[in-house]
Design goal:
Blueprint (H helix, E strand, L loop, with lengths): L1 E6 L11 H4 L4 H15 L2 E6 L3 H10 L6 E5 L8 H10 L3 E5 L21 E4 L4 H22 L9
Parallel strand pairs: 1-2, 1-3, 3-4, 4-5
Helix pairs in contact: 2-5, 3-4
């Protein structure tokens, strides 16, 4: 199985930006933890970060071929980007939205996620561990949907 992990704007500054909110863990350390877990659970993971909305949209569109699922932290684009939302909807890839902080405990403008409506699920408030939770949840979902597709219905008739 193959997963694409996308980090949105300003996440390249993790470890140095607003430490009281985002902690001291760098993006490299987050990516290293993601890579280690991927190896442990036997999946291929590709990780990318961009501050550009258009680049994120392009990567999401390209993920239609070659990836089984998407994990995305759209960061500030969570609350503004119909384009990212539409790209996720268009690919129909199972997607998990991740946020390091609990967006529902923050400023009111952060409570609205354009991504949530097209995502399989959302993990927020667990810091970098949220990515690992998202990977495990997405893997479980992908395995169960593959099993369901392979399991013939009893009785041989149409449902």
């Amino acid at each position: 199985m193959r997963m694409l992990v996308l980090h949105g704007p300003n996440l390249n500054l993790l470890g140095t930006r607003e430490r009281s909110l985002y902690g001291t863990t760098s993006l490299k350390a987050v990516n290293d933890a993601i890579t280690r877990l991927a190896e442990q659970i036997g999946i291929h993971v590709e990780i990318k970060q961009s501050n550009s909305e258009g680049e994120l949209v392009t990567w999401i569109q390209e993920a239609r071929t070659g990836f089984d699922g998407l994990i995305i932290n759209p960061a500030g684009y969570t609350h503004t980007s119909v384009a990212i939302r539409d790209a996720i909807a268009a690919t129909a890839l199972p997607t998990v939205e991740v946020h390091l902080t609990n967006i529902h405990q923050r400023e009111p403008f952060r409570h609205r996620s354009y991504i949530a409506g097209v995502a399989l699920g959302q993990v927020s408030g667990f810091g970098p561990t949220g990515y690992l939770l998202a990977m495990r949840g997405l893997l479980d979902h992908l395995k169960s949907t593959r099993t369901a597709r392979r399991t013939p219905r009893k009785g041989g008739g149409k449902a």
